[in-house]
Batch of 2 targets.
Target 1
Amino acid sequence: MSRSLKVSEVFESIQGEGASAGQPAVFLRLATCNLHCSWCDTKYTWDFNNHVYEDEVTTRTVDDVRRQIEAATARRLVVTGGEPLMQQAAVAELLGELPEDFVVEVETNGTLAPNQELARRVDQWNVSPKLSHSGNRQGLRLRPRALSALAATERAWLKLVVADERDVLEAEQLIEVLAWPKARVQFMAQARTQSELLARAPFVRAAAEARGLGVSPRLHVERWDGRRGT
Ligand code: SF4
């Protein structure tokens, strides 16, 4: 029998962030997260004190979700959340049944190691460990073993959300401790709105360039002001 997934939303758009920004993709946004970032832009996936679970989350079989994904025009799947690895057994089942021509990306906060099936099938890991400004305790947000397992796939990118000089210094230390290859590291401005993005992007770009790192755009914020389902 097919497993089930707690789904927040499925939609087609373009990948707005990271190494494949600009590519058309079908997004599977899964509910629940093991972190509670103060500036999270998808609180509707986990903050059920302020969002109604029954309105936000649908429990669906893997088969049902797979059919919807296969019917999409795009052949790039971005599994996001929330934290999708909280449902990794069902995600692995879904990916195992998906046609091989699908390129698969997973967005993760880097706190959970992927199982072997996932580690093999996922083409690109977009790993975004959280810094202290997220408001999560260090022991919860930084899990070295999970980060090492993701790094070992050699298909993982670090995407570090930064807002100011303090964040940049903290991010720089983390990159060093993890010995993550610089060619697969990007800074991304903390921004939920176009005005926040406009204000922070120049600083973030300069900080990244000065350290030989990449910069991730936030195309969905640029184009749609971070509107949900875009
Ligand atoms: S890890 Fe991601 S989804 Fe979870 S609270 Fe933080 S920003 Fe939101």
Note: The pocket of iron/sulfur cluster is lined by residues 33, 35-37, 40, 42, 81-83, 109, 130 (CB under 6 Å).
Target 2
Amino acid sequence: MQLQMIWPVTKWETTVRPALAKGYVLRTGRREDAAAVTELLVAAGFAEWNLEMFGQWLDRAIPDGLWVVEHEASGLVVCCTWAVHRPQAIYPFGGELGWVGCRPEHTGKGLSSVTCAAVVQRFRQGGYRCIYLSTDDPRLPAIKTYLKLGWIPNLVEPDMAGRWQAVCEKLGWPCDLEIWAREVEATKARW
Ligand SMILES: CC(C)(COP(=O)(O)OP(=O)(O)OC[C@H]1O[C@@H](n2cnc3c(N)ncnc32)[C@H](O)[C@@H]1OP(=O)(O)O)[C@@H](O)C(=O)NCCC(=O)NCCS
């Protein structure tokens, strides 16, 4: 199973607004962005992405749930993150943050922290309490972005403690398994 993270109850009242690098603008995405967003997600490594998938995911996104960063000089859409209504057994009424991607030539500027923060904010405006994401162990830039914003690991399978320890070691990030477990329980109690 992919690594799981949730937006903790301790941050429900906090608005996180990372600074956007100069020369870029943040905006919501729309159906006309289909080709641009598909191109960027393919460039970010999601080779399976295509226009049909864009339509399918846009239908699952909440209104104003697709956030993109545009490069002002070129007009290119260079980064995106999606807010998708996607409840699961372990995530009642869950909103999933997904499809985070940045064109490789525009990484290293923290652009995805801006789109991810916008997605969390949008979910909160929409009344979502259960906000989650799934990711893969090698996706270190993404995981560091999530940890820095305040997301916490949700250890839903026994092997995940060891996997998080390995990830944190690679990132030089404190691995507070007990603190996280307490925060997860407090958050779930409010779902
Ligand atoms: C995830 C992604 C959008 C992040 O791009 P970005 O917003 O430009 O992020 P950055 O490159 O600024 O990296 C974020 C942080 O990770 C760090 N980082 C980057 N590569 C790293 C690595 N290999 N090991 C450890 N840390 C790394 C950066 O130094 C940065 O830390 P800082 O904020 O303390 O400086 C981009 O890497 C991407 O498109 N990846 C492929 C798709 C993907 O993995 N999506 C996530 C799916 S869950």
Note: The radius of gyration is 16 Å.
